[in-house]
Amino acid sequence: MRPSKRAADEMRKVSFERGVARYAEGSCLVRFGDTQVLCAASLEDKPPPWLRGQGRGWVTAEYAMLPRATLTRSRRESSTGRVSGRTQEIQRLIGRSLRAVVDLPKLGERQITIDCDVLQADGGTRTASITGAWIALRDCVQWMVQRSILKDSVIKDHVAAVSCGIVAGEAALDLDYAEDSNAETDANFVMTGRGGLVEVQGSAEGAPFSEAELLKMLALARGGIDTLVAMQKAAIG
Hints:
Blueprint: E1 14-18, E2 26-32, E3 35-44, E4 58-65, H1 77-80, H2 85-99, H3 104-107, E5 111-120, H4 125-146, E6 159-167, E7 170-173, H5 177-180, E8 185-192, E9 197-204, H6 211-236
Parallel strand pairs: 4-5
Antiparallel strand pairs: 1-2, 2-3, 3-5, 6-7, 6-8, 8-9
Helix pairs in contact: 2-4, 4-6
EC number: 2.7.7.56
Pfam family, one: RNase_PH_C
InterPro entries: ExoRNase_PH_dom1 (IPR001247), ExoRNase_PH_dom2 (IPR015847), ExoRNase_PH_dom2_sf (IPR036345), PNPase/RNase_PH_dom_sf (IPR027408), Ribosomal_Su5_D2-typ_SF (IPR020568), RNase_PH (IPR050080), RNase_PH_bac-type (IPR002381), RNase_PH_CS (IPR018336)
């Protein structure tokens, strides 16, 4: 039995609250159980300098964890003068995941930045960030369409993410911190609404995992992402 009493293929309670940041062109507060992430999309009417003159736009992300998002206070990275390797890796993952479903030439020479700030962490902050960031991005794009900045949406598909792992010898979906910290294998899956794989991250914490275990986790992830995409569709109406 999992610490949360969930079945192996059962997600935590997930919710999306749109429009929570007054000034952002799109925003979403996403909850995966006790993990909470505020995702806010900001539009700039110019691409990054290295992309100017190429006739296409860019979607990127920044990720941060509030000092008391965890059990003990962590220092703000701004106070240390550098961004940690973990933070860089996560925000690059979020950006790659979103760009996989955006028609960048159709966006034009503009940039959309999604800020993902973890208010409370209980495992799965990167997967919650990706899933909520898609809603913030989608609402930003709709904001642009409504103001005739774009003729129509540049988003080609949904994208969502979920964690899986091998815990006490069994594959499990959507790990919370209690499971993640004791998992023999920890993996994250990013997929589109049509089922395409965007990214798979997986590592063994102890003994190597088998191909059969990988396929079990993939099957669980597909079911979880189907659920998340259905919830995204319901949230945007």
